[in-house]
Amino acid sequence: MASDGTALTELCLEDWWWARSRNDDDCGTATGDAADASIPDSTTTAGDAHLDTVVLIAPEHRASEGARDIFRRTSAWLRAYFTGERPDFGSAPPLHAQGTPFQHEVWDLIAEIPYGRTVSYGDIAAELAERRGGGRMAAQAVGGAVKRNPITIIVPCHRVVGSGRSFGGYGGRLDIKATLLDLEGVDLSRFDL
Known about the structure:
By secondary structure, the protein is an alpha/beta fold. The chain contains five helices and eight strands. Strand 4 (44-46) and strand 5 form a beta hairpin. Helix 2 (101-111) packs across helix 3 (121-131). The radius of gyration is 17 Å and the shape is globular. The two termini are 29 Å apart. The relative contact order is 0.16. Mean pLDDT is 80; it is low at 17-51.
């Protein structure tokens, strides 16, 4: 998790493709025993996936009560999600993802995908084209924006799949995507896994 002190700016899995390139020296970190940061421990088990909270706080916000509040709210949202309470997007903490205007358009559409449902990259491209007043939109362009979603699970990019029986990709590993969708009750037998 990362915050700018007023909103959640990043929520990714340890194995997320871009998380490995982050310079952790630029941030304060709390893992495992998050009590030192006054943040509830959010170690959670979902199916076979074991998920630990890693909190990154930019140095200028390290002592910020605002950042701690964002992390508490994020932890509560995640706890509700992993215990099957189906928290909605409206109950999430404020979000401030860094991205292009196009990426934000795609992420906004992803945020509308209901719990337990999946939508294809092509469906998102068609919806985005319609909202823009017609024309065409490439599913590959949508895939690029989905791949760069910095706030996983809350902005549920795991609910975006390929066409037909294609499962699509997932930056945090396909087994975790399958675990998240299974947790939501999605019938995984319709995909070629």
